[in-house]
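User: I'm designing a mutation panel for Phosphoribosyl-ATP pyrophosphatase and want to avoid disrupting the core. Could you give me a predicted structure to guide residue selection? Please restate the sequence first so the numbering is unambiguous.

Assistant: Good idea. Sequence first, for numbering, then the predicted structure tokens:
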Amino acid sequence: MTPTAAGALDRLAATIAARKGADPETSWTARLLAKGPEKCAQKFGEEAVEAIVEAVRGDRAALVSEAADALFHLLVMLAARDVTLADVEAELARREGTSGLAEKAARKK
């Protein structure tokens, strides 16, 4: 069965969580996680910069590819600190309907 786009992030997050205990010799994700949160953060930063470069260049296909890499490495970085996609989704839901300007102003107080 071919996976669909719907739920792809949830499936990816579940795969990453499953790799946390995997043998680093058999899984790229397990290998990255075994290097610690700092390395995971560094790799996410590298991938984010690559996505930014493609956004500036205007190459849509390359941006989509680099954005997928950045999302993957963001999820790995979160997993390295035991933060789940559900945690981030809950924070987004909490912010939903709040003006970005009002939310920023509330943080300054």
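For picking mutation sites, this is relevant: The mean pLDDT is 93. Residues 19-83 form a domain with the Helix Hairpins fold (CATH 1.10.287.1080).
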